[in-house]
Amino acid sequence: MVNDGKHKGIILLFILALLQTNFSPTIAYLYFGMKYYVYIDNKITTYKNTVGIRCQSGDEDIGFKYLKDNDDKYNFNFRLNFWGTTLYFCHFYWGRSDFSYVVFDMGSYEECRDGASYWEIREDGLYSRCYKGGSGGKYTWKKRHNWP
Which is more confidently placed, 54 or 137? Predict the structure, then answer.
């Protein structure tokens, strides 16, 4: 006959061990199918301000879109995969310049734990920020890539 007290003790030790490790909140969110949002805004104000964008992952092609005017937007969302390997990149086209950039990977998630990242396309490059909610909603834009 199995001792129930022994099993409860083993389960309790297992739970305590998980709590003592660096158990990432990412794992918990994955089980709940957390959605992540990416917002990309065209902030180019010069005469030739049309920007082309195509975003995709290894499993999904979000599609190509022209952002024609200052403040035109390209937004999408997705669910994090079970393995914690979700990655999305976008290819940006402006005039004769183009480049690709990863707009989401699990490092982005760790940096922007609020479930969203915000991107701006400017004349001098690509910028991003995380929204930090609460009173004041503080955020800082970071330059991520220059136009070639």
Answer: 54
